[in-house]
Amino acid sequence: MRNWHLSILVLFLFNILLLSSRPKKFIFIAIGSAPENRNRRDACRRSWLSWRCPNIAYRFFTEHNTAENEQSVSLIVERQTFRDIEFQPFPRGREVMQGARFLHQASWALSHYEFDFYLKIDDDTLLCVQKLQDMLGEKRNKFFWGKYWCKQDRSYPDESFMLFSTDLLRFLVENREFLLFDEEVSMAWNFGFLSRFLNISIFDDRNGIDSQQGYLTDFLHHPGFNLTRLMVSDLSFCNRYLFSHHVDSTLDMRIFKESSSTPSSRRMMIEHPRDTCGTKFSIIPSRKSRKLPNIQIRTI
Ligand SMILES: *[C@@H]1O[C@H](CO)[C@@H](O)[C@H](O)[C@H]1NC(C)=O
Ligand SMILES: *[C@@H]1O[C@H](CO)[C@@H](O)[C@H](O)[C@H]1NC(C)=O
Question: Which residue is closest in CA terms to ligand 1's atom 3?
Answer without folding.
Answer: 199
